[in-house]
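Example A, followed by Example B.
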Amino acid sequence: MGKKSNMGKKGENDIQHPTSNIQQDEYLQGWKRALADYENLKRDLDKIKEENRNHIRIDLAQQLLPIMDNFEQAVNHVPDLSAVDRSVRKNIETWLQGVTFIKQQFETTMSELGIEKIEVKGEFDPNLHEIAEEGEELKELSAGWKIGERVLRPAKIIINKEGIDKRGNR
C-alpha cells in the first residue's frame, strides 16, 4: 500500500523535551562565562606585559645612567685648546662636536623611552634632589633621572645654606 504521511500528526521528533531548553541555556551560559574568562585573561596579560615593559625600561635606564654621566663629564670638561696647533685644534673641535651629537642622540633616545632628566630649578625638592653639599647657590653636581613619577636617581645638588634647610623649607 501507500506510504503513511506523518504530516498533521505529532510525532516523536516534533515534541520538545523540557530538558533540551534547559540544556541549551546551560551551554549558552557556559560559553558566555568562557568568553568573559578569556576577555579577563587577555586584559590581565596586557597588564602583565605593560608591567614587564616598565620593569625592563627601569632596568635599562639604571644601566644607561652611568654612561650618560660619562658623556656629560666628557662634554663639560673640554681642555683649553688655545695653546694647541690650529689644525689639531680643528680636529679636536670636530671630534668634540661628534661626541656632543652622540650625547644628544642618547638623551633623545632616553626621552623616547620615557626617561626624563630632573630639572634643577630655583627650589629644593626633597623628592627629586639630594643635597651633596652646602654652598652659595643652588647648583647641580650630577643629573637626576626619572620615569614618569618614579625617581630613578635624585639630582645631586649644592644647596644655598642660608636660603633653604635640608627639609626643603625656606
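Example B, a separate protein, is given below in the same form.
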Amino acid sequence: MSVRHRNDSRRTGGGLSLYSTESEHYDLAIREMADGGKAVVLKMNIGGIRHDQAIVPIEGDTAELVIRADSLHYDFCLRTADGEQHLGSAQSKWLSNEVSSPFTGVVLGLYAQGRGSTRFDDLLITYTY
C-alpha cells in the first residue's frame, strides 16, 4: 500500500494507521517537528507503550508512505526520488485479535490530526498472495 500525503499548515499531522485498538496500533505519518520542519515518523503503540521507531526529516510537506505486509510482519517505508528507505518492521501478532482484542482484524485507515488540512493522493492498495 502506498499513498502520497501532504500537510498544508503548521500544527497538523496525519498518515496511515494499522489500527486494532487505541493501545495497539502502528502509524506511519508526517508530523511537524519543533523547528517547524516536517518529518516522516513511524510510531508503534503496543500495550499502552508509545514509541517513535523512526523519525526522518523531509524536504517540503509531501511524502510517499509505503506499508507492506505478510503473515508475520509489517514493513514501513518512505519513497523518494532517490528510492525507498526502510524505516522499520513490526510484528503483526501484536495487532491480532488473539493478543489485542476480540475484534475480527486490523483496520487500515488514513487519519489527520491538529489544525489545518491534510491531503492524501494516489492511494494504491495491492493484494498479492
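On Example B: The beta strands are 2-7, 12-19, 25-32, 38-46, 49-58, 62-69, 73-80, 83-91, 107-114, 118-124.
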